[in-house]
Structure formats: structure tokens, C-alpha cells
TrEMBL record, chains A, B:
Pfam families: HD_3. This is 5'-deoxynucleotidase. Its cofactor is Mn(2+); Co(2+). It catalyses: a 2'-deoxyribonucleoside 5'-phosphate + H2O = a 2'-deoxyribonucleoside + phosphate. The lineage of its organism: Bacteria, Bacillati, Actinomycetota, Acidimicrobiia, Acidimicrobiales.
């Protein structure tokens, strides 16, 4: 990256906004375990976030409690920005939760802290709400964040399921949020899981 | 991609929605001319779309006419989905406009046509509005779509400017939409252009 000294000539608010937007380009280099559908490579977190935002735009009607689509989309667009500093936390085989949570808090402080103060509050509260997973918007956003990788695992015939030898009970426990927040999407995921077991991409439990 | 026969067991609406969401995964494999900030590779269109949506969330206040952030974000998230069939249209050195426009219309018919009928209309009208670039929301979205690659060209010290030997007058003409839709962002871009000329990343005109 070349010198961004030219930003110094802008007013502070715009300088901070553009500095943030340039910094978060790095999310394009954070790799996840999930493969993209053509199986050519692993998915990065920026394109994963785009995909999830589309899931929200298309599937919002299935949320069990009514959701505010813009709030859900915003959460999904920013929910993984902390991975620039903290790295991805794989659903299967990841870092101990407490350690990773602390890293992510520090990452949120630094990264959202690049923005003007009022936007720090706006973005940080959206991220905190997502992490807490208590409001209808956050519960639905979290559900989509579980649904998408499972669908991609099915599309590629295994993916992280095969990498980590996941069994169907573990997969169901990991994705319980989907049925809780959106029953119709939970039923669809159950159909994908049953098909994956039948194809040998998820280990059966009995 | 493995058989998606399991979708056949779902009700038609959900089947179409999930089929669309799986199909658009291919946008992650469409490469643009622009490099990502760490200069390691070209940007793909899915991560570009994510980045633009963040530009909208952070910079909406600079739109000259008030904009509806959700409408702008939705436009930016879907504006390039047609590239799955039609390919990217580079700002510099691209396909003849009329030919590309026809390809994109066919792509929009097929891709948005995967959705349930009411969502076909919703997504298609959002895409048509973006393409027409007449409403305040679309003018601002188009401006961001010009601003982001120029900032990345500056960050990497040339990028597509150097690839195509672009001069500063051409760059200013190509990005006129930015100042038109958001004067403060136009001023910022002008500062980046001046700095790029001083650094030899854009050819001077005199």
C-alpha cells in the first residue's frame, strides 16, 4: 500500500471515513474454511459477507419475528470485520472461545475506532447486537451466518464437514439457530443435512 | 457442484430463493481489473460489491440529495450480479457499450428470473434503476461504484490507471459522477488524482 498522506488534506471526518474504508479492504484476504461453490478455492470473508447480505435480502420474509432488513443487512456486512485483526473462527476446530472473544473485542475497538465518533457508536452497537444474538434482527442474522456455510458444504459435497469429520448430530447442534429464528429455513436445512448424510458427506450417528 | 435435487422437496418459493442464492455464488469467480489493496491479486466482483455496500453505509451523509440507505445498499449488492453471465465491463478498455448492454439485459432476465415472481420484480427494478442512474439513490450508488476503484488504484500505486496508460483528463471524465452526486467526495477524489499525477500513476495532460 502506497502512502496515504493525501488523506491528510481532507477534513477530519472524511479522512477517517476513507481511512476506514481503505483499511477494511484487508477483509478480502481473510480466508475461511468454506469452499466457494465451484470448489476452486476457499471463501474469503468479504465475499462471504456479501453473500450473507443477499441471503438477508432474499430470505427476510422467513424470519419468525419480523425483522428490519436494513439493520440485518448492516449487521451482516460488518459482522466479520474484526477478523482483519482476529482471524476467522472456524465453526469446527476453532480457537478456544474466550481467547477469541477477547481478540475480537480488541479488533472491534481498533477497527471501528477508525471511524468518526458517531459512526464508531453506530457500527459498534450493531456489531455488539449481532454478537449478543438476542434481538430478532441479530437472531436472524446469526441464523443466516450458520445456514450459508452449510449450504456451501452441501454444494461442494463435504467441505468443512469432511475436513473435520463432522457427524449429523454435531451439524444439527451447530445450526440450531436456523430453525429457532426461521422455521422454514430450518426445515430446508434439515433436508440438506439428510441428503448430505445419504451421500456420505456427513457422518451418521447410528 | 453436486446435485441440488434435494431442493425439489421444498415448496416452490423457497426452492427458487435458495436456487438463486446458490447460483450467485459464481460472482465470487468473476475477476475485475482492479487490484485489492495488498496488491496480491485482482478483485472479484462479490467482494467489490461488499466493499461498495460499506462505502454506502459510511458515506451516505455526503450524497448531495438525501438518499435511502437501504435502497442504495441493495442496488450496490446486486448491481453486478449480471456479470455472472455477461462478464465484467472494465471502465478502461472494455467491450463496446451496446453489445455489453444487450448481454447484461439477457443476464438480468436469466439470473433475477430464478427468484419468485414478486422478487424478480423487486430485484429487477432495483437493477434497472441503478442502470438508468437518474434517481438520487442510483446516482449516489453509481458515484460510489466510480470512487472505489479509483481509491484502490491510488492505494496500489497505479492499478488499472497504469495498465491502460490513463491520463488525468480521462480519469476526471470517467469519475465525473462522483462530484455530481457527492461534492465532498468529488473533492476528495480530486486530491487523490492530483497525488496520483504527482507520483506518476496517472499521466499528466500538459
Amino acid at each position: 500500500m502506497r502512502s496515504q498522506d493525501w488523506l491528510g488534506g481532507l477534513d477530519e471526518r472524511l479522512r477517517r471515513q476513507l481511512g476506514f474504508l481503505i483499511e477494511i479492504d484487508r477483509l478480502k484476504t481473510v480466508l475461511r474454511g468454506t469452499r466457494i461453490a465451484d470448489e476452486s478455492r476457499r471463501e474469503n470473508t468479504a465475499e462471504h459477507s456479501w453473500h450473507l447480505a443477499l441471503f438477508a435480502l432474499v430470505l427476510a420474509e422467513h424470519a419468525d419475528d419480523a425483522v428490519d432488513t436494513l439493520r440485518v443487512v448492516r449487521m451482516l456486512l460488518i459482522h466479520d470485520i474484526v477478523e482483519i485483526d482476529a482471524g476467522d473462527t472456524p465453526v469446527f476446530g476453532g480457537t478456544p472461545a474466550a481467547e477469541q472473544a477477547e481478540r475480537e473485542q480488541r479488533a472491534a475497538d481498533r477497527l471501528f475506532g477508525l471511524l468518526p465518533d458517531d459512526q464508531v457508536d453506530e457500527f459498534r452497537s450493531s456489531w455488539d447486537e449481532f454478537e449478543a444474538a438476542e434481538t430478532p434482527d441479530a437472531r436472524f442474522a446469526k441464523a443466516l451466518d450458520r445456514l450459508q456455510p452449510s449450504l456451501l458444504n452441501h454444494v461442494v459435497g463435504g467441505g468443512t464437514w469432511t475436513d473435520y469429520g463432522v457427524d449429523e448430530a454435531t451439524e444439527r447442534a451447530t445450526t440450531r439457530r436456523v430453525a429457532d429464528a426461521a422455521p422454514a429455513l430450518g426445515d430446508a436445512l434439515e433436508a440438506a443435512i439428510a441428503d448430505a448424510v445419504a451421500n456420505g458427506w456427513l457422518r451418521p450417528n447410528s
